[in-house]
Amino acid sequence: MKNIRLLVMIEAAFFAAFAMILDFLPSIKLSPAISISFAMVPIFILAFRRGMLAGILAGFLWGLLQVMLGDAYYLTPLQFFIEYFIAFASVGFAGILAPLIQNNYQKGNKRIALAWVVAATFIGSIARYFWHFLAGVIFWGKYAPEGMSPVLYSFIMNGTTFVGAFVFCTIVLLVILASAPRLVQAETFMTKKQVKKAS
Ligand code: 218
Prior knowledge:
Elements: H1 2-23, E1 28-31, E2 34-36, H2 41-50, H3 52-68, H4 77-90, H5 98-106, H6 110-139, H7 150-179, H8 192-198
Antiparallel strand pairs: 1-2
Ligand 218 is lined by residues 31, 33-34, 73, 83, 132, 135-136, 140, 153-154, 157-158, 161.
Protein backbone atom coordinates (compact mmCIF):
# COMPACT_ATOMS: atom_id res chain seq x y z
CA MET A 1 0.00 0.00 0.00
CA LYS A 2 2.78 2.36 1.00
CA ASN A 3 4.63 1.50 -2.21
CA ILE A 4 1.58 2.23 -4.38
CA ARG A 5 1.24 5.66 -2.77
CA LEU A 6 4.90 6.39 -3.37
CA LEU A 7 4.62 5.25 -6.99
CA VAL A 8 1.57 7.48 -7.56
CA MET A 9 3.40 10.45 -6.02
CA ILE A 10 6.42 9.85 -8.27
CA GLU A 11 4.11 9.60 -11.30
CA ALA A 12 2.40 12.86 -10.28
CA ALA A 13 5.79 14.63 -10.13
CA PHE A 14 6.81 13.14 -13.49
CA PHE A 15 3.57 14.15 -15.26
CA ALA A 16 3.70 17.66 -13.70
CA ALA A 17 7.25 18.09 -15.05
CA PHE A 18 6.07 16.91 -18.46
CA ALA A 19 3.23 19.50 -18.43
CA MET A 20 5.80 22.18 -17.54
CA ILE A 21 7.96 21.21 -20.53
CA LEU A 22 4.93 21.34 -22.89
CA ASP A 23 4.15 24.80 -21.48
CA PHE A 24 7.47 26.06 -22.86
CA LEU A 25 6.56 25.01 -26.42
CA PRO A 26 5.28 27.73 -28.76
CA SER A 27 1.56 28.41 -28.19
CA ILE A 28 -1.19 30.78 -29.33
CA LYS A 29 -0.94 33.90 -27.16
CA LEU A 30 -4.06 35.96 -26.39
CA SER A 31 -2.09 38.20 -24.00
CA PRO A 32 1.30 37.82 -22.24
CA ALA A 33 -0.45 35.96 -19.39
CA ILE A 34 -2.85 33.87 -21.48
CA SER A 35 -1.96 31.24 -24.04
CA ILE A 36 -3.87 28.39 -25.66
CA SER A 37 -1.92 25.13 -25.45
CA PHE A 38 -2.26 21.41 -24.80
CA ALA A 39 0.07 21.47 -21.77
CA MET A 40 -2.72 20.04 -19.56
CA VAL A 41 -2.55 16.69 -21.40
CA PRO A 42 -0.10 14.97 -18.98
CA ILE A 43 -2.23 16.00 -16.00
CA PHE A 44 -5.32 14.54 -17.71
CA ILE A 45 -3.52 11.28 -18.46
CA LEU A 46 -2.47 10.92 -14.83
CA ALA A 47 -5.97 11.79 -13.59
CA PHE A 48 -7.46 9.07 -15.85
CA ARG A 49 -4.76 6.60 -14.83
CA ARG A 50 -4.70 7.18 -11.08
CA GLY A 51 -7.86 9.10 -10.21
CA MET A 52 -8.89 12.52 -9.00
CA LEU A 53 -6.60 12.95 -5.97
CA ALA A 54 -3.47 12.04 -7.95
CA GLY A 55 -4.61 14.44 -10.71
CA ILE A 56 -5.12 17.24 -8.21
CA LEU A 57 -1.64 16.60 -6.77
CA ALA A 58 -0.06 16.66 -10.25
CA GLY A 59 -1.92 19.88 -11.16
CA PHE A 60 -0.81 21.47 -7.90
CA LEU A 61 2.83 20.48 -8.57
CA TRP A 62 2.61 21.89 -12.11
CA GLY A 63 1.41 25.24 -10.69
CA LEU A 64 4.24 25.14 -8.15
CA LEU A 65 6.77 24.49 -10.94
CA GLN A 66 5.44 27.50 -12.89
CA VAL A 67 5.93 29.67 -9.81
CA MET A 68 9.40 28.25 -9.05
CA LEU A 69 10.60 28.67 -12.63
CA GLY A 70 9.42 32.29 -12.67
CA ASP A 71 6.79 31.63 -15.33
CA ALA A 72 3.90 33.08 -13.28
CA TYR A 73 2.07 36.42 -13.42
CA TYR A 74 1.71 38.10 -10.03
CA LEU A 75 -0.81 40.87 -9.34
CA THR A 76 -1.83 40.21 -5.70
CA PRO A 77 -1.28 37.31 -3.25
CA LEU A 78 -4.92 36.15 -3.60
CA GLN A 79 -4.82 36.31 -7.43
CA PHE A 80 -1.57 34.35 -7.38
CA PHE A 81 -2.96 31.70 -5.04
CA ILE A 82 -6.19 31.31 -7.06
CA GLU A 83 -4.52 31.16 -10.49
CA TYR A 84 -1.42 29.10 -9.75
CA PHE A 85 -2.55 26.75 -6.99
CA ILE A 86 -6.34 26.40 -7.01
CA ALA A 87 -6.80 26.68 -10.80
CA PHE A 88 -3.96 24.31 -11.72
CA ALA A 89 -4.94 21.77 -9.05
CA SER A 90 -8.54 21.87 -10.35
CA VAL A 91 -7.45 20.25 -13.64
CA GLY A 92 -7.26 17.03 -11.59
CA PHE A 93 -11.08 17.03 -11.15
CA ALA A 94 -11.06 15.32 -14.55
CA GLY A 95 -10.18 12.20 -12.57
CA ILE A 96 -13.70 12.04 -11.17
CA LEU A 97 -14.58 10.04 -14.31
CA ALA A 98 -11.47 7.79 -14.09
CA PRO A 99 -13.48 4.74 -12.90
CA LEU A 100 -15.82 5.02 -15.92
CA ILE A 101 -12.88 5.33 -18.33
CA GLN A 102 -11.03 2.41 -16.75
CA ASN A 103 -14.09 0.12 -16.52
CA ASN A 104 -15.00 0.67 -20.15
CA TYR A 105 -11.45 0.00 -21.32
CA GLN A 106 -11.41 -3.15 -19.23
CA LYS A 107 -14.69 -4.34 -20.79
CA GLY A 108 -13.35 -3.57 -24.26
CA ASN A 109 -15.77 -0.66 -24.85
CA LYS A 110 -13.09 1.56 -26.40
CA ARG A 111 -15.49 4.08 -27.94
CA ILE A 112 -17.42 4.59 -24.71
CA ALA A 113 -14.14 4.95 -22.80
CA LEU A 114 -13.04 7.67 -25.25
CA ALA A 115 -16.41 9.43 -24.90
CA TRP A 116 -15.81 9.59 -21.12
CA VAL A 117 -12.28 10.89 -21.84
CA VAL A 118 -13.86 13.83 -23.72
CA ALA A 119 -16.33 14.46 -20.87
CA ALA A 120 -13.54 14.30 -18.26
CA THR A 121 -11.34 16.66 -20.29
CA PHE A 122 -14.28 19.09 -20.37
CA ILE A 123 -14.70 18.84 -16.58
CA GLY A 124 -10.98 19.43 -15.86
CA SER A 125 -10.74 22.31 -18.34
CA ILE A 126 -13.86 24.10 -17.11
CA ALA A 127 -12.82 23.62 -13.47
CA ARG A 128 -9.49 25.32 -14.22
CA TYR A 129 -10.81 28.17 -16.38
CA PHE A 130 -13.63 28.96 -13.97
CA TRP A 131 -10.92 30.15 -11.55
CA HIS A 132 -9.08 32.12 -14.25
CA PHE A 133 -12.40 33.71 -15.23
CA LEU A 134 -13.06 34.68 -11.60
CA ALA A 135 -9.52 36.06 -11.18
CA GLY A 136 -9.97 37.87 -14.50
CA VAL A 137 -13.11 39.67 -13.27
CA ILE A 138 -11.63 40.61 -9.89
CA PHE A 139 -7.98 41.32 -10.70
CA TRP A 140 -7.43 41.71 -14.46
CA GLY A 141 -10.38 44.04 -15.24
CA LYS A 142 -8.10 47.08 -15.44
CA TYR A 143 -6.62 45.66 -18.66
CA ALA A 144 -10.04 45.58 -20.37
CA PRO A 145 -10.45 47.84 -23.43
CA GLU A 146 -12.09 51.19 -22.63
CA GLY A 147 -15.81 50.81 -21.95
CA MET A 148 -15.79 47.01 -21.69
CA SER A 149 -16.92 45.51 -18.40
CA PRO A 150 -14.42 43.30 -16.51
CA VAL A 151 -16.95 40.42 -16.62
CA LEU A 152 -17.27 40.53 -20.42
CA TYR A 153 -13.50 41.01 -20.85
CA SER A 154 -12.68 38.05 -18.61
CA PHE A 155 -15.40 35.93 -20.23
CA ILE A 156 -14.06 36.59 -23.73
CA MET A 157 -10.38 36.05 -22.80
CA ASN A 158 -10.78 33.05 -20.53
CA GLY A 159 -13.73 31.61 -22.45
CA THR A 160 -11.73 31.60 -25.69
CA THR A 161 -8.73 30.07 -23.92
CA PHE A 162 -10.93 27.43 -22.29
CA VAL A 163 -12.53 26.39 -25.61
CA GLY A 164 -9.14 26.37 -27.38
CA ALA A 165 -7.37 24.39 -24.65
CA PHE A 166 -10.27 21.93 -24.36
CA VAL A 167 -10.33 21.29 -28.13
CA PHE A 168 -6.50 20.98 -28.35
CA CYS A 169 -6.30 18.65 -25.35
CA THR A 170 -9.22 16.52 -26.59
CA ILE A 171 -7.63 16.03 -30.01
CA VAL A 172 -4.22 15.15 -28.54
CA LEU A 173 -5.74 12.81 -25.92
CA LEU A 174 -7.92 11.01 -28.45
CA VAL A 175 -4.94 10.45 -30.75
CA ILE A 176 -2.72 9.23 -27.89
CA LEU A 177 -5.31 7.05 -26.14
CA ALA A 178 -6.72 5.53 -29.32
CA SER A 179 -3.29 4.01 -29.95
CA ALA A 180 -1.95 3.63 -26.41
CA PRO A 181 -4.84 3.00 -23.98
CA ARG A 182 -2.41 1.28 -21.62
CA LEU A 183 -1.19 4.73 -20.58
CA VAL A 184 -4.32 5.10 -18.47
CA GLN A 185 -4.45 1.49 -17.34
CA ALA A 186 -1.92 1.28 -14.54
CA GLU A 187 -0.81 -2.23 -13.75
CA THR A 188 -1.50 -3.09 -10.14
CA PHE A 189 1.68 -2.55 -8.25
CA MET A 190 2.39 -5.15 -5.62
CA THR A 191 5.16 -5.58 -3.10
CA LYS A 192 7.14 -8.82 -3.09
CA LYS A 193 5.21 -9.86 0.02
CA GLN A 194 1.85 -9.23 -1.68
CA VAL A 195 2.94 -11.16 -4.79
CA LYS A 196 3.95 -14.13 -2.60
CA LYS A 197 0.60 -14.00 -0.77
CA ALA A 198 -1.39 -13.79 -4.00
CA SER A 199 0.40 -16.67 -5.71
C1 218 B 1 -8.60 38.63 -18.41
C2 218 B 1 -7.51 37.84 -17.78
N1 218 B 1 -6.25 38.02 -18.19
C3 218 B 1 -5.26 37.27 -17.66
C4 218 B 1 -5.53 36.34 -16.69
C5 218 B 1 -4.44 35.49 -16.09
N2 218 B 1 -4.40 34.08 -16.51
C6 218 B 1 -5.36 33.57 -17.34
C7 218 B 1 -5.33 32.26 -17.78
C8 218 B 1 -4.30 31.43 -17.35
C9 218 B 1 -3.33 31.93 -16.50
C10 218 B 1 -2.26 31.00 -16.01
C11 218 B 1 -1.08 30.99 -16.89
O1 218 B 1 -1.32 30.31 -18.06
C12 218 B 1 -3.37 33.26 -16.07
C13 218 B 1 -2.34 33.84 -15.15
C14 218 B 1 -6.87 36.18 -16.26
N3 218 B 1 -7.22 35.29 -15.30
N4 218 B 1 -7.84 36.93 -16.83
